[in-house]
Amino acid sequence: MKNYYYFIFCFLLLGSQNTFSQNIIGNEDSKSSSKTIVELMALDSLKYYFAPTEPTIFEYDNSGNLILIKDDFSKTINTYNMDNLLISSLFHIWDYDSNYLRPHELMVYTYDNNNKVIEFTLSINIDNLWLQNTKTNYEYSNNLKTKEIFHFFNEDSNSWVLSASVDYIYNSNNLLTNINSYYYNDDGQAYLGSQTSNTYDNNNMTYSLYESFDTESVLVYGTKSYMTYNSSNLLIEQWMESYSIYNDSIWIPYNKSEMTYYNNDLMESQNNYLYGNEDWNLHRIDSFSYDNYNNQVFVESYGVYNEVWTSVQKLINVLDYNYTSDDILHHMPDPINNSQMYIPNYSHMLTKTINGYYNTNNWSFDTTQYFYSSKSFQISLPENILYNGNDFRVYPNPASDITIINLIGLVGDIDIRIIDINGREIKRVIEKSNGSMDIGIDVSSFNKGVYFINIRNGKFAQTKKLIVN
Question: Helix H segments across 163-303?
Fold first, then answer.
């Protein structure tokens, strides 16, 4: 039961990054910053199809940080620092013997001066006594994670014991080329547990090799992945080989996917194959549909049922088009789980997710429902930066790599400043414009979250929100 509710917690907390764009309803001056009150639609509760009678409830602080997630059998209390960074999560689970939600796990995060998490600790409550359990330290270079060091707490020696470490290596384009994982025996001696090596072409990953070894450095399991792209750098084919000492210790083809796209580069279909009888065999076909705003609203999967190709699964996303992503509060991710999958960044309010399954000649449908209400939150900007609009275009937004600022009608020096939600200037660029230009901003090294792009040109000054995910 705990795993299920923890899934819901991750699903929502990591679900999306759009945040803090907003209808201004008031300003309040301070010595160092202008405090702006914004009104957003925030998720109040969720009814998940696994537990339709047990809604999950959400509460927030004045800055829009998610401070409480609660249902009938668990709750999580989050605490943040002055920079709105998550510093602790206290997870409670229902105690059937005592009939109350008892503290069970405490997760604590520590950050450096660049707001990068450098330590994560997990403690477990057993018989009302908090016991240190695991600790992970993180190292960075040029804002890229270069090392993870794992420890467990030894109660007998009352000390932390080194258990594993991971090295991350990048190329000159900051693309991850190698991941080397090491494990430590009782004598503290390290041995290579697994390694991953990636190859790129035009910044597209074309090959990835993963190998896992035993304590004698013998290859036990591995995968090889091959990727092919079209002229638009869209992935159109990916296939994989696998290796196992339990399967004749040879490399054999395993699965393959082929992708097609609409003219707007959104995925249209994906054909999935399994390898058998010395050939690729079509196993499943996925078809994707979108609304006029490029929100994914329908996915249909086809498979062989009673020796006939038929629709076997449907995913329907229902949206409220009265609210755009600028009107909706979404949460920052867990700082150590940025690699986890996120639900799509919809440009409108997602209100229902309907899953349909076909079995024994019948369809069954399960629905997840999202409930929102309007709330007021406070953000702080420097006194000379006002949040006032949409007079220039920023795309893609949200962005994770490069975002483009499209300017029309401005001539001369363009002063561009990127401000975070705490009013700190993160980046400044000065460009010359002849009246129309696109300016690319690299945000790949930014922390995930909300920023403001301030444009100045003579007497012209405008600011717009940017989401980095």
Answer: none
